[in-house]
Write a structure and sequence with these properties.
The structure holds two protein chains of two kinds. Helix content of chain A is about 75%, strand content about 0%. By secondary structure, chain A is mostly helical. Chain A has a domain of about 170 residues: Cytochrome C Oxidase, Chain A, CATH 1.20.210.10. The radius of gyration of chain A is 22 Å and the shape is globular. In chain B, about 70% of the residues lie in helices and about 0% in strands. The chains are: A mainly alpha, B mainly alpha.
């Protein structure tokens, strides 16, 4: 290892060198997500803004696609980060992993450029393959879809072959099985049918099962590794809980998919299935609350990496509020009839994605930086600690303001557009012009600016944290004593 | 199969649904904290939180017309039972998984309802 505080790849193993490349692109795409979100937010308030130059539909698409891809890059980077550490052997096929990284990154750049350069035009077979598939959230053209599956399969090979060669831990087992689902479920989004109900049926497999099941399990694995690294929780305990929580998540989450099938033309029995399993979905979150209290009690929140631990705690709360509270508020079909597809959904989506996923990737960035700087001290009284503390505060303040603004706008839409006007076009426009909607969107925009300030501070902190530190990182027995 | 919520009940449904999860978590939190700190008084607060959960579920069920249908009435019953027992079951899992770590402290968990 080189001198403490110096950022150098000499401190990293092969998998970790690849991981930091993924992390760098992830942060850049996070910035793009914030930028396009701000522009789309301005267009809600001033629809003429950038009209004909950068249309709202393109801004919104880029905002959401950037989020999906930066989180994916963050997850892949995190897995490469822990791979050699967990398995005890060098990454199998690392050259392939590096090649795939450059292909994946280049493909993302090309897709974004095409989105920006070809904003309008006819939708035909050629445009599905080359420009835009036209399916919300997974608009990437077909060639990029195939590329994503190939990249994930190559990534799967790296992970599975490395664990086969070295130690196959509990985290490894769950991770390998999860990556099969990660590659397989994406294929459901490539199925073409002219029947809109069937199309939506399979599309939700990608949106719900890919994001809400395979990503949740992936985050569970990352959380397990993160707790071992930051708090020194014993592997046996962490892995047992990983099995329990994965079982609970799959038990309630797979058929929880039913709450997306209420209004797309699928049979009525989905009301029963969706309603029942949606009522069960908060149980894993309650389980996590009990276990978090138990662990916090045992370890007294002492850690070797305070910023990472703070983001891990933010994940537990964000997941609970975003997925649990905000989800259950409008998941029963009796009320979902009025709320689905309004800003209610956007409010839930913002809090759940940030709380459940973004927080975990950011925690991993701090874990990575600690080692990248030679295993530098990151516990209490860290030099320049105000930056990570203010970044976490501003990002959460901005997110809460956005979520509340969208909630007010969505509440108004559910009443005026849906209940009073009966989902007509007139109702849609009446609701959009209502003062409560406009004010909700105004405050959402203010929240967006605060969030953007938090992002800038986060990026600054990630570039500088530990730079002036000369103390080595605490080991867990020392952490217990601080 | 379902009877949509009346517009006048929108807020009641949103609020009571949020309170179901919040009081459920509060119950679980106080339950776990009471056991880990060996503080029986907190267990009374935990069951008070469960009472809040019970009230929230009943309010939600009433406002969302869940009692008008047998299936949804059964769901309400299962929710109440599930949320009551889940923290107990999870606590036993915690004890089981941490048994090697603190054998003297936690190997003998307090019995169900013992501290209430």
């Amino acid at each position: 290892m080189s001198a403490l505080g110096i950022l150098t790849n000499a401190n990293l193993n092969g998998g970790q060198k690849l991981a930091v490349k993924y992390f760098t692109v992830a942060i850049a795409l996070f910035g793009a997500q914030v930028l396009f979100g701000l522009l789309a937010g301005i267009q809600y308030l001033n629809p003429d803004f950038l009209f004909g130059i950068l249309d709202f539909s393109v801004n919104r698409m880029l905002h959401i696609n950037a989020m999906v891809v930066w989180l994916l890059f963050g997850f892949i980077g995190s897995v490469y980060w822990l791979l050699e550490d967990e398995s005890g052997v060098p990454v199998a096929g690392l050259a392939l992993g590096n090649l795939i990284f450059w292909i994946f990154t280049l493909a993302v750049v090309v897709v974004v450029l095409v989105y920006l350069l070809v904003q309008v035009g006819p939708g035909e077979l050629k445009s599905i393959w080359l420009i835009n598939e036209g399916r919300e959230y997974i608009e990437a053209p077909r060639w990029a879809d195939i590329g994503i599956v190939v990249c994930v399969l190559a990534f799967f090979y790296n992970v599975a072959a490395t664990f086969m060669k070295g130690k196959f831990t509990g985290i490894a087992g769950v991770l390998v099985l999860d990556l099969i689902a990660l590659a397989g479920l994406y294929l459901a989004g490539m199925y073409y049918t002219p029947n809109i109900s069937m199309d939506q049926h399979w599309w939700w497999w990608v949106i719900h099962l890919w994001v809400e099941a395979t990503w949740e399990v992936l985050v569970g694995c990352l959380m397990a590794y993160g707790l071992i690294k930051t708090m020194g929780v014993r592997r046996k305990i962490v892995e047992t809980w990983l099995y329990i929580e994965v079982a609970l998540m799959f038990g309630s989450g797979i058929l929880g998919l039913g709450h997306h099938y209420f209004w797309i033309g699928t049979p009525e029995y989905w009301f029963t299935i969706g309603g029942f399993f949606s009522a069960l979905e908060p149980i894993p979150l309650v389980a996590m609350v009990v276990h978090a209290v138990f662990d916090a009690g045992h370890h007294k929140l002492k850690s070797t990496n305070n910023p990472a631990l703070a983001w891990i705690i933010a994940q537990a709360f964000g997941n609970f509020f975003g997925a649990g509270v905000w989800g259950f508020m409008h998941t029963l079909p009796q009320i979902n009839l009025y709320t689905h597809g309004t800003q209610w959904t956007a409010s839930h989506g913002h809090l759940a994605f940030f709380g459940a996923y973004a927080t975990m990737v950011i925690a991993f960035l701090y874990i990575a930086l600690q080692k990248w700087r030679g295993g530098v001290y990151m516990s209490s009284n860290l030099a320049g600690a105000w930056k990570w503390k203010w970044a976490i505060f501003l990002l959460h303040l901005g997110m809460i303001a956005m979520v509340m603004g969208l909630l007010i706008a969505g509440y108004e839409q559910s009443q005026i557009e849906r209940a009073i006007e009966g989902s007509t076009w007139m109702g849609y426009f009446t609701a959009q012009a209502h003062p409560w909607f406009v004010q909700g969107m105004f405050w959402r925009q203010i929240g967006g600016w605060v969030f953007a300030a938090g992002f800038v501070l986060l990026a600054w902190d990630l570039m500088t944290i530990g730079k002036r530190e000369t103390r080595p990182a605490l080991v867990h027995s020392e952490a217990e004593g601080t | 199969m379902i009877e949509p919520v009346a517009m006048a009940n929108f807020f009641t449904v949103f609020f009571s649904a949020a309170m179901v999860i919040m009081t459920g978590a509060l119950y679980a939190l106080l339950f776990a904290y009471s056991r880990i700190k060996h503080a029986p008084r907190l267990m009374s607060l935990a069951y008070l939180a469960y009472l809040g959960l019970f009230t929230s579920v009943m309010t939600l069920a009433n406002a969302a017309n869940l009692f008008h249908n047998t299936f949804w009435t059964v769901i309400v019953g299962l929710m109440l039972l599930g949320y009551l027992l889940a923290p107990h079951a999870i606590w036993h899992l915690c004890i089981g998984t941490h048994a090697d770590e603190h054998p003297a402290d936690d190997a003998q968990p307090a019995k169900l309802f013992q501290q209430s």
